[in-house]
Amino acid sequence: MARFFGELLFELARSLIGGLLERAVLKAGAWLDARVPGRRTRIVVGLLLGVAAYFLIPVLAGLLGL
What we know:
membrane; mainly alpha; 2 helices; transmembrane; single chain
């Protein structure tokens, strides 16, 4: 029973985080498509995506892998 609740909690957390990330990416994509980004905007967005890929994604994967 404890294992079932643990798996249920894990799946709920995974779907919630996945849904939030998906919505954030869709909103960012729509924002970038709505206007023509300048050179500075592209550099800032690229750096932020690089930081997210280097730090946040491995941390989330580690937390979900517990």
